[in-house]
């Protein structure tokens, strides 16, 4: 059997969008659960801007939002673009919002101590699954190794692998630490009062979908034992009550999953560095020296760390990864190299000592 050009490990939104971009190649997505299951299935899939003081992270997030809206609309996915009202969490936040206002670059209106953006909406995960078809194999990855200048994934062969497995590790990469951050999306029926022609973001995100309220939040770090439960659902409803007057409710659905977050919040995209070869070539990296050149593992890429904004970040990251693969385009802040340099300065000497033992 002819080897695949790319095998993408992970069928979440990052893997699906990456496969969409690489459809000119012989590509396969492999996942033990299915397409858009796990964290992607549990996502509220809200698309809304980020506000803060000036930062490259905020600029990236807001560019990703605009690009995602165009992408989903172009392929016929409803973005429910009703607009979002971002509200301060508390009195301290009210003061922070006054500072944030100076740095907002997207069109907005001031409302209720917060900011209303027309560029706010959400998408349905089932519609994405329906509209974006990708070649898929449901199978757990139990073995990845290099064999005869190809990658062998279980019994499959590929010229290239792209790791899009979220917080679950399928290969040990010393300098990349993707954390699982627990998030939930619930839906309730009942009676409530409030302007639900738009959606809201305060301590959680809230939108009216048909006769239900959808409430979502990513809210627990270091909680690998978390599971969907009614107690946490009620906590989300209490947060929503700070915005919407919910008079009575019935919990209709609870979905939970682990969003994949990097240590600096930026997505992690690009080639995987050969740690041993690079440290051998430039041992002074561990002392803080910036390497002039790094060595990469042949045919190994990653697209991960989408955080709580996977359905917006994945499109821009997937587009940038394709351009990187085809044209060696610069990935900027999302490139894996930034994590390697930080790791080498902090852990490099310890790592090298361990290798010598």
Please tag this protein with its features.
FAD/NAD(P)-binding domain, 3 domains, alpha/beta, 357 residues, globular, eight-stranded mixed β-sheet
Q: What do these coordinates show?
A:
The protein has 357 residues and is an alpha/beta fold. It folds into 3 domains: 4-38 and 129-178 and 263-356, 3-Layer(bba) Sandwich (FAD/NAD(P)-binding domain), CATH 3.50.50.60; 46-123, no CATH class; 179-261. It is built from 9 helices and 18 strands. The strands form 3 sheets. Strands 1, 2, 8, 9, 10, 11, 17 and 18 form an 8-stranded mixed β-sheet that branches. An 8-stranded mixed β-sheet has the order 5-6-4-13-14-15-12-16. A hairpin with a 2-residue loop joins strand 10 and strand 11. The longest helix is centred in the C-terminal third of the chain and has 20 residues, at 337-356. It is globular.
Summarize, please.
This protein is an alpha/beta fold.
Query: Over all CA atoms, what is the radius of gyration?
Result: 21 Å
Number of strands: 18
Number of domains: 3
Helix and strand string, N-terminal first? EHEHEHEHEEEHEEEEEEEEHEEHEHH
Topology:
Elements: E1 4-9, H1 13-21, E2 27-31, H2 38-42, E3 46-47, H3 56-74, E4 84-86, H4 91-100, E5 109-111, E6 114-117, E7 121-122, H5 125-131, E8 136-138, E9 144-147, E10 150-153, E11 156-163, E12 179-193, E13 199-201, E14 205-209, E15 212-221, H6 230-240, E16 245-261, E17 268-273, H7 275-281, E18 296-304, H8 310-327, H9 337-356
Parallel strand pairs: 1-2, 1-11, 2-8, 4-13, 11-18
Antiparallel strand pairs: 3-7, 4-6, 5-6, 9-10, 10-11, 12-15, 12-16, 13-14, 14-15, 17-18
Helix pairs in contact: 1-8, 3-8
